[in-house]
């Protein structure tokens, strides 16, 4: 599933680039961006637990696809934040939201048969933005580009870490 890998790699590249820019940004922060980049795809739980099963259990209409919207991402981020101590919650929310935003931006570039993207802002509005028609979710080249960006970001981060290590040993 190249689509899922692409989202993880883009989240890693963004998080690693931020770690180069900000000294306080460590591996845990990069992981939060990566988790955020995966959060809209929680809707793929439908492959394991069909929505009809959940609907029957709860007795109310239910669809997993609501998780693959901005509102679903906000709810997932809010639930994730509850796992952290209060002093870290603002940072966690921002990083998970950043990863989720990258996911939605990438998905807006998908080729669709209708030329329209999914209703990313549902339930606030059912407006469907024009699709970017840049790639299919099954294309492998976006994962290769994302992997290259992630490798470059990692190389720059390692070089910075190495340079900082040399500076501390010189003191």
From TrEMBL:
Alphabetic keyword roster: Hydrolase, Membrane, Transmembrane, Transmembrane helix
InterPro entries: YdjM-like
Transmembrane segment boundaries: 6-25, 32-54, 66-85
Presence of the UniProt keyword Ribonucleoprotein in the record: no
A single MF term (Gene Ontology): hydrolase activity
Pfam families: YdjM (PF04307)
Top-rank taxon, per record: Archaea
Name by which UniProt lists this protein: Metal-dependent hydrolase
Natural source organism: Natrinema saccharevitans
């Amino acid at each position: 599933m190249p689509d899922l890998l692409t989202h993880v790699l883009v989240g890693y590249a963004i998080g690693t680039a931020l770690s180069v820019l900000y000294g306080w940004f460590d591996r845990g922060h990069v992981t939060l961006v990566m988790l955020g980049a995966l959060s809209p795809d929680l809707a793929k739980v439908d492959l394991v637990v069909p929505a009809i099963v959940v609907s029957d259990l709860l007795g109310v209409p239910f669809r997993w696809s609501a998780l693959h919207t901005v509102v679903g991402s906000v709810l997932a981020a809010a639930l994730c934040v509850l796992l952290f101590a209060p002093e870290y919650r603002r940072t966690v929310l921002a990083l998970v939201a950043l990863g989720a935003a990258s996911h939605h931006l990438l998905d807006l570039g998908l080729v669709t048969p209708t030329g329209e993207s999914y209703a990313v802002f549902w339930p606030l509005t059912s407006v469907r933005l024009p699709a970017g028609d840049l790639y299919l979710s099954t294309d492998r080249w976006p994962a290769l580009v994302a992997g290259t960006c992630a490798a470059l970001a990692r190389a720059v981060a390692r070089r910075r870490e190495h340079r900082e290590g040399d500076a501390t040993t010189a003191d």
